[in-house]
Amino acid sequence: MKKIVVAFNIFWWICVAINFGSILWFVLGNTANFQRGVDLVTTVIFMICGVPSLILLMWSLYMLKNGGLKSPFSMLGVTCLLVIMISLSVPLYKNVNTSGWLTENIKIDTMQVTADNQYEYYTELVNTFQRNSSIRLYLKNLHSNEEVRIKLDLPKVSGISWNSKKNFFTTLQPTGHEGKYILKTQKLSPFPEAIFEIDIKEGKAIRLE
Question: What angle do CA 60, 61, 62 make, to 5 degrees?
């Protein structure tokens, strides 16, 4: 009997670890490691599954700290609660959004080609509306297929108005010097007016205005 009780308590600890992991994973994933706020859907899922999981988790930790299961006669009732705990953990694991944390969430404007037909380019808005957001210029050499991404020193986007057909946030014009271009933000873009000198070989964007 004693071995059964000990084995059950070990199983109980495993369930606690799984439940704690699901709560932690859900919170970290859906806040992009606390880089963004939570939406309504995430809040509802947490209220339905996360809050009961936390209650069962705290109860389990209290019980285990005080010796856990001491008699096999209470095993059935505790088993039912552990089944509920694991059942609540499944939707928490399934409804994790890792975009913007483990993977970048990237939105782009319409692809364009430079006037000298050397590069395809577009603007990348990375992890928009998060604290770890950034803006990059993507370039692809049409002759070598080499890809380059250059970070642009622009303020965080507070709002975007997307056109259903085409969106041109920047223009890239050749300067006559190999590998150097002038990038200008457009009036209908979510960025303030700015001009950059793009040095593709160095992978740098120098703000001129």
Answer: 90
